[in-house]
């Protein structure tokens, strides 16, 4: 059982026009085994939340705390956060030329576990996870994200989540740009990992469609850098029907 | 995101297109082949740095190598007992001129030939097939040195020669490589100098009918290293593969110039050079010229240069040039790209638990892995990845 606690988080970025505050006091608690959907219009700060938790250098935390099982996450370096059990599936995974998927996965697994995985079980695990995600075995020899289609990149992110077994996974718009088939494969992957490892999930999305495949326990509506409303799955249905307009006019 | 700062890829070039790029190293209407070659020093004035072939060079550091004077020092050679069929002999300056496949192409190598105090010739008898690589270590004690080396491979011979430069020196050299009919030479030049060495070298290889040359250059050490390699495909059916691997960190200037001259029909050439740069003042230059002469029908050529910039401030220049004088060729192309290992790639790897130093190693290992396998001398391949990782460790130590 793990808990990620975000308390009154304020985050800013440097822009050519000066410092801009993007998160204005976010409070959120995520327990193992729960799926929290973060929904909201573009520019509301959803991705900033994801990247701030993972430790991207672009974002400056001006106040507030983030803890994982009581440990101060904000004090940790990016790789320490990953080792502590935080995983970020990125919206735009970057290409890493010259590094094969298989080499990358093994290096990451070794780093996270502090020891190299046992070769035989590891190879089996990678193969079966790839098969579950309908990834051809030739994928392992390709360079990380190089020439991957949008759907392949997202499946590769979920593959990492499955193999690295984080305590808390943040999925940043993993559904954006996917067709229904790819969306189903990715969603099945998330559900499978959750059933197997009891991971806590922060599911950031702009669309409600993914929630047909992954049932959230909680839905939080993000507007203008803070949570404007929260509730259960029924809130998502309401958003599906009404959109974000009512929050935007209020703001 | 991968930012590719500069890319050219003309996989199928034709004779109709001009193939000089913005930074063309060949002036219009003049061929790369027209450059002077001579043992006469007066032909080559002292370079100012404005000349076409010196404009990317660390001319100030190379200046001692332009001085027309004898020097006291020399590199100390270590070499194992030579197998049957291979001889190492002293050759007079005058004889060495006669036996060189070409005259020097610039002032530094002309001076090297003039003041070498006599050349050494490594000669492999026709038909000798030498299994074990011949390894020569040339060690500098910090003094000035000049060298002239002849590598002569007799017809139908097969051999690998590894030349490693260690220690420190202010050194210039002229290496003539004569690959006889249907002979095969694998020549590896390793520059593992200490940090303050200054080295200018010209290698001119001539390939006879059906000859094969695999030439690898590995430049890791030295303050300034400038290597100018020419392969003259002068015999029908000859084939050349030129590989280069370089790693520059702060304060290092590494320049590799290549000229592949397709003189006769049905020859093949491949040039593959890759470099990594780390550290604020790291600097590399790659200039790859390929000439397909009117007579060279059926030519098949491709040259590639890739650079990986690991930290801010490092600079890689890459200038490919293709001159084509006949349309009757099998293929001609070149590609050049300089990529940056940027903050986003670093963040991605670190967000998977991989530390900063391990992330750099992962990327650099991947970048060089294919190339190292091409060197074809297992003894060299084995040590090379370790040597590169040592370079990376030094970069990180500097950062701290």
Salient structural properties:
heterodimer; A: 251 residues; alpha/beta; Rossmann fold; 6-stranded mixed sheet; 4-stranded antiparallel sheet; 8 helices; 12 strands; 31% strand; globular; B: 400 residues; 6 helices; 17% helix
SSE topology:
The complex is a heterodimer of chains A (251) and B (400).
Chain A: E1 3-15, E2 18-31, E3 35-39, H1 46-54, E4 59-68, E5 71-72, H2 78-84, E6 86-89, E7 96-100, H3 101-113, H4 119-132, E8 143-144, H5 150-164, E9 168-172, H6 180-197, E10 200-205, E11 218-223, E12 226-231, H7 233-242, H8 245-250
Parallel strand pairs in A: 3-10, 3-11, 6-9, 9-10
Antiparallel strand pairs in A: 1-2, 1-4, 4-5, 7-8, 11-12
Helix pairs in contact in A: 5-6
Chain B: E1 3-10, H1 59-62, E2 76-79, E3 86-91, H2 93-99, H3 107-114, E4 119-124, E5 134-153, E6 158-179, E7 184-191, E8 198-207, E9 212-219, E10 224-233, E11 239-248, E12 253-262, E13 268-277, E14 283-292, E15 300-309, E16 315-324, E17 331-340, H4 343-350, H5 356-374, H6 378-399
Parallel strand pairs in B: 4-5, 5-6, 6-7, 6-8, 7-9, 8-10, 9-11, 10-12, 11-13, 12-14, 13-15, 14-16, 15-17
Antiparallel strand pairs in B: 1-17, 2-5, 3-4
Q: What features would you describe in this structure?
A:
The complex is a heterodimer of chains A (about 250) and B (about 400). By secondary structure, chain A is an alpha/beta fold. Chain A has a domain at about 5-90 and about 165-250: 3-Layer(aba) Sandwich (Rossmann fold), CATH 3.40.50.300. Chain A is built from eight helices and twelve strands. Chain A has helices at about 45-55, 80-85, 100-115, 120-130, 150-165, 180-195, 235-240, 245-250, and strands spanning about 5-15, 20-30, 35-40, 60-70, 70, 85-90, 95-100, 145, 170, 200-205, 220-225, 225-230. In chain A, the strands form three sheets. Chain A has a six-stranded mixed beta sheet, sandwiched between helices. A four-stranded antiparallel beta sheet of chain A has the order 2-1-4-5. A two-stranded antiparallel sheet of chain A has the order 7-8. In chain A, α5 runs parallel beside α6 (about 180-195). The relative contact order of chain A is 0.18. Chain B has about 400 residues and is α/β, with parallel strands linked by helices. Chain B has one domain. Helix content of chain B is about 15%, strand content about 45%. Chain B is built from six helices and 17 strands. Chain B has helices at about 60, 95-100, 105-115, 345-350, 355-375, 380-400, and strands spanning about 5-10, 75-80, 85-90, 120-125, 135-155, 160-180, 185-190, 200-205, 210-220, 225-235, 240-250, 255-260, 270-275, 285-290, 300-310, 315-325, 330-340. Chain B has a 17-stranded mixed beta sheet that branches. The longest helix of chain B is centred in the C-terminal third of the chain and has 22 residues, at about 380-400. Classes of the chains: A alpha/beta (about 250), B alpha/beta (about 400). The interface of A and B includes residues 77, 95, 143 and 164 of A.
